Amino acid sequence: MSEAALEEVSVLSSIYCGDGEFELLHQSADGVTVQITSSVLGGGGVTLLFHLPPSYPLCPPDVSVSSTALSRTQCQSIRRHLLHQAASLPPEAMVHQLMESLQTGSILLRQDNPSELDLWVSVLSLDHIRSRNRYVSLLERWSKQLQLSGRLILGRNILVLLQGNKANIKEFCCLLKTVKVDVDSSGRKCKEKLMKVLIETPVFCSGSSLQGFVVGECSSLSQLRAAFEEVHLGEVYRDIQPSLRD
């Protein structure tokens, strides 16, 4: 665990020093988990678990949110906003900053459109991947944090196939365009500004078998079609085929 993380835990325990506000739940080689119980502006009490990985603050914390005063949808909304904000912040101590944005109302509570809670599939087209390890690591982490299943398909066409809650897919796309995920031709870190959404559609049957986040390669359109058919999304492939490179 980095000295920065341990120092932040000490600072947090001093700031959130009220009865039941702060608790160090876990500390090991896998990282540190702290619990902070506070209040959301106009929303009542909320408990947040921050897991600081060994590489923190170079990597942002994972967050879980629970509350007896807020709905499950509201807690999920808070979590999405916190994860997005954490991913966009500089690599430095950030838990207190996240808590402040929550307590001051910078993160607004909202009810998602019920249709967005259904299962959706989206296919994203990426322009390039130069820093493969970093890029893939971020995509895997975001899909896990946002509870999305997916595939990264490499080849002449670089595609990200996502399945899950529509709002979470939109959050994934927002992260992709606002966080520096790759490097440009000069080796400078850059954002994925050229990402395109080829299709975004609800799944009307339970046939799709996407699980976890898998990275694969397809060197031809026939292999790409087979990859979609393997997870029972052949119709999605037919819809996006006109946008693909031969």
Automatic annotation (TrEMBL):
Keywords: Cytoplasm, Nucleus. Its main location: cytoplasm. CDD domains: RWDD3_C (cd24164). GO terms for biological process: positive regulation of hypoxia-inducible factor-1alpha signaling pathway; positive regulation of protein sumoylation. The keyword Amino-acid biosynthesis does not apply. Pfam families: RWD (PF05773). InterPro entries: RWD_dom, RWDD3, UBQ-conjugating_enzyme/RWD. PROSITE patterns: RWD. Residues 7-109 form the RWD domain. It is found in: Cytoplasm; Nucleus. GO terms for cellular component: cytoplasm; nucleus. PANTHER family: RWD DOMAIN-CONTAINING PROTEIN 3 (PTHR15628). This is RWD domain-containing protein 3. It comes from Periophthalmus magnuspinnatus.
